[in-house]
User: What shape does this take?
Amino acid sequence: MTMRFLSLTSFVCLASLASAQDTSIRVTYTTRAARAAVVLEDLGRLANIKLLTTPETEREILIVSVKDQPFAEVMSRIATVTSCEWKQEGASYRLIPNRKQRTLEERAEIAKRLAHISKGIKDLESAANMRRTALEKSAAELKKAHENLGTKSVSVPPTPESAVPFATNLNARIGMTSQLALVALLKEIDPSVLAQMGLEDREVFSTAPTRMQHGLGGDATEIVNTFVQEHNEQLASLPNQLEPDTTGMDPKEIEALRAMQRQRTAKVSDVSKAIVVARYRGFSENAAFSLNLRLYDSKGTTVYTSSAIIRGAVPGGQVGSASPDSEKQSEAKSTPIEYSDDSKALMAANKGLDGTYKYAFSPELRRKLFLPKKYDPLSFTTTDEILAFAKSKGKPLVADIPDDYGGFSDDEPTNVEAVNLRVEHADGIAAIPDDSFTVIKPATPTLSREVRADRFALSALMHAVEEKGVPSLDDYSTFAVASPNPWRNFTTAFITSLIPGGLMQGFSQSPNWNMLRFYGHLSSEARSHLTGGSKLPFSQLSSAQRSELDQMTFGSFSQLAIDDPQRQVADSVPDWGNGSTAVNDYRNEPTEVAPTGLPAAGYLELAVRKESFASPQEINGGSRAMGVLGPEEMATLKASRDSREGQESPALFPSMNNLKIGENLVLNFTFHIAPQVVIKQRLNDHHFPNNPTIVSETNLPADFQKQIADRLEIIKKYGNSPKGPPPHRRRKNSPLTTGHGTGVTGQVRKPSLFSVVPKMGRGRGGGIRRHLNRRQSDVRHRSGSRVVSRRPARRFAILQPAAFRSESSFTLARDGIGGRGTESEIGCGEAA
Assistant: This one.
């Protein structure tokens, strides 16, 4: 249907052009990848017809190579690859989006993702069933080993063979059971909701949904009850005492190993609520669909967690795979690609990368890379490959190339057959059937437009690098407002890697893209008030600011922190993990602590401090990943040099000379979401003075040396871990809950802890709108001999700031909180 519509659109476009001015003129034109506005201006000049774009369509990146072709037919193919149509405006023509065609493409992409997700769920189930079969075969051996152990404390020999009946089977059994339960719960979820998720979206499904959650299906309660029963039965079959081998371990390692074993073998009880969290992890073709099952007790403590990963369900990237026969054919025949001098230099620079993280670019190549609005990043190796592919077909070319096509990191040339495989299997790009032209467009055009980088904003950022050496926070935030996250496509990821320090701005500081955008939307007056110590209420945020905060809170990269006075240390402590505090209860889940969305009485505050930083000076205009080194980074380098690894491989941590010294304004933002629950974000604002000092690492300024020494002491005390000391442990055998029994029950001593939730849709933006009816049917389920009611729906009480209500549905245990589960691709789960 889509292809028929494309053909019809092209025909209408062609007829429209031909009926107006003299479009019978034939044109000869070849361009490397360039913005649509540039290409259309060139082509219009050849035909003496003015061709225009809109702000939306001028961002498309085109490669055109035609010889003596009718002008109207070239224009028709341009409309096809960009999913657009031509609109006549007097004597001019404007390329505008074809909304009907783009809607069809969006639906097709969702359908394709839906198919991949469904297949991924089946693969998870198949893997778990295969493991079950294997475990059943070894059950006799495991039973015999347990009978021989009796109740004695036995040390398992540290050989893989002898460890199999104990640790491996324990992990495999728990993982198998939890993965089967997770698969069963996934079948209770509307898969279209998952298919419509974007790369930065996060959705939560629950047995008792809040307004920010989706409801799990009617059988979810029984599935969870069955899992809990099977899990506990498996644990009961283990020996009373099963000690791992601790030979050669120090006391800390022994305690850590025993704690892990206790955590793995803890009984699950008093389950009051289950949620499944779905989100994408990673970017582009390396992304995977992450699923996390969490079970809460009546106080909100996480008593069990399990995770699984679905690969191949990414909205974009490779959607097909080459057949073995095609791969063999590609290997057997290799048609070389004629690369330009600039492309050869780029590949040589990539090939020459070493431990110094330095690109040996020629001054001319560097100049072009730093002007992406004039020399498009796709105009190097990517253009050569597409032109070679079209030449092999013997037809004129019109192509729209996505930013995530790749090729920038290649250090070896590819061949025409390899490009042909990418086209055939819709790996980033796809060919449109056409008898007269080679027509190429993005395999996922909707996603391609979403992640396309703004070339003007990118050029402005790179200009700031040339002018200042290191961009300021204003430079970064301005770029962030105009462009998607650079790590979502290869193009901007490569270009921004040329910035000193890249976008990391230090070893531990990869700024949240939504936070950069949030800052970019702040007025100078708001920034001044925050810097002066004033608080900014959420109720005063603009719609753009709320949208970014909403994504930080509920999106894929949501990371809540707990404001616990017992855990707080000075702001100078390294903030690895973005300020997250390890807790194991409902406060880690944003849709629980903010069950109705962003609280109106929430607020933002800002703490500012100054520190020094150093930037190693480059030779030949290259760039380093370690281009911005603050006190944390310098202290980490020193600690690494003093470590065993540093002593064994000193070349990995070289001493640095010719360091340019500047000042960094550290901005620590705290968004108060609920009582003791915050989001912490850090941004850096680097500046060099007019006459910066150039020093070596051995003669840094005294204040900089003191900052480094202070950080080094903190690193020695806390290590490279999230801010603050480790959480205190709960006392052995101390009760965590007031509930009784196991399974999803309503057996809590305070019946007023839960209340009915109004069933209404979600209002937050981001990604494609989700459509799911969360209304829970008044159904009663049986779990054994106990009847469990699914209505009324229960939720954790809404936390209203202080506005915030101090009362919570869950009363956390006074004796601390337990451990955390882990994630694995095989869906291994743990009791918390």
Notes: DSSP finds 25 helices and 22 strands in the chain. The first helix runs from residue 2 to 18.
